[in-house]
Amino acid sequence: MPAVIDSTGATVRDESVPAAFAADLGTKRNAMFRAVFRELANQRAGTASTLRRDEVRGGGRKPWRQKGTGRARQGSIRSPQWTHGGVVFGPKPRSYETSLNKKERHVALQAALADRFQNDCVTVLATENFNLSKTRDLAALLFGSARAAKRGDKTLVVYAADQATGVGQQLERAGRNLARVGVTHVGALDVKDVLGYARLLLTDAAFAALAKAFEETNHASA
Question: pLDDT averaged over the chain?
Fold first, then answer.
């Protein structure tokens, strides 16, 4: 049951876990793996490139005659066994992009969020009369002090899309210089982010938006 806190860190009340995140989704680990694999693979630039032996300059002349020298036969100084020679089966520019259908991505995100809710790793931030624009204030809210923020649990702060110009701006500005804090909005939330942080701090609007989105899709698919 996530606690609801205000900008001072005081607990206001407790929220019940939304039904979409209260279900046992432990069997969806494979979907979470595929979702994280896709997210990481799609970030790869795929620009690594090496030269094959036919692409390396030089090496057109045979280094020494075939027989009689006592040395191993060589045809070119650009063969793979030579320093500065060509690379065997080296990387060439390619796309690492993989696909995953929308329904499976949705299930994976739901399972990741359910894991965080069921392990008491979620806190809700009440944003009524919210005013928190200093980094030290956010550090105190999340970790107790700026010093503790250097070694505290990695925390992801999530705000709703319609809070981007108000609360979202304040959270982005305050969290910019905290190494163990990430700030994002509901629309950009992915499985990698949810699983990569030990704690989630959801604004009350983000909490409501996630609960509504997953409840609606679950009813639609039922």
Answer: 91
Q: What is the distance between the alpha carbons of residues 197 and 210, in angstroms, rounded to a whole number?
A: 18
Q: 118: closest CA among 209, 16, 19, 22?
A: 22
Fold observed for domain 3-27+100-221 = Ribosomal Protein L4; Chain: A; (3.40.1370)
**Cα-based torsion angle of the residue sequence 168, 169, 171, 173 in order, rounded to the nearest 10 degrees:** 160
Residue 110's contacts (CB-CB under 8 Å, 6 or more residues apart) are: 20, 21, 25, 28, 214
Give SS3 for 89.
Answer: coil
CA distance linking residue 179 with residue 146, whole number of Å: 11
Rounded CA-CA distance 110/20 in Å is 8
Number of neighbours of residue 167 by Cβ within 10 angstroms? 22
CB atoms within 10 A of CB 174: 22
What pLDDT digit, counting tens, does each position of 167-212 carry? 889 899 999 999 999 999 999 999 999 999 999 999 999 999 999 9
Extract the tokens encoding 132: 């928190």
Residue ranges per domain, the chain?
3-27+100-221
82 burial type by CB count under 10 A (0-12 exposed, 13-18 middle, 19+ buried)? middle
| Residue 52 in tokens | 């094959």
Closest CA to 120 of 7, 22, 35, 13: 22
Backbone angles phi, psi at 176, to 5 degrees: -60, -35
